[in-house]
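TL;DR need structure tokens for one chain.
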Amino acid sequence: GDVFTDLDRLGSSLARDPSIRAVIITGPRPGVFAPHYDLAEILSGAQELGLRTPYPMARMVLGAVAGAIRVPGAEAGLRRTPLAGVVALLATHRALSRLQRLPQVVIAAISGDALGGGCEVALACDIRMMADGPFLIGLPEISAGIPPGAGGSVRMVRTIGGARAASMMLRARPLSPGDAHAVGLVDDVVAPDELLAAATHLADRVGGWNPAAVLAAKRAMAAAN
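>> reply
TL;DR here they are.
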């Protein structure tokens, strides 16, 4: 949860900074991109709300909480209630949606496994470059008894198509860098020691585009989806 809180703050800052033309999201060290949510956090939130909450009620609660947290100060208060899990889910959606809407070109330099939450982050970026190696990318949450919960299922369908997305998610089958490139989930596969340099080179190139044109293109693509 802390990762997405930090990502949300970063996105808010970037959205207000026209001096930055391109952004690279990468892991803290080689072989690591972004960890999946701690399953204990997810389970705790689900147990607080009730694992068997009927869908219509869950949707109603989600909508009500989404409206409530727009009130200044309400989010912090709700995090101390049994609705804390719902608030955390909405905050994660907000962080990824903000990342996807940034006016800059956002490049994911996927330096290791990108499973679950890590894949969600990568899918919210505009361009994905992945290190070659014994790494995996995908949304295998269903094998832990939960669905992808931060918009990744929708983004996956938009990225690689419905049939491939269904096969990956319902079989809990993440892909190697080469296979991910073959289906269009990642745009480039790069040697691990060259990944950051390649991402930086690309950022330098796209950072030279007219920012108004970049924003217009991103808005048009978002509307098409």
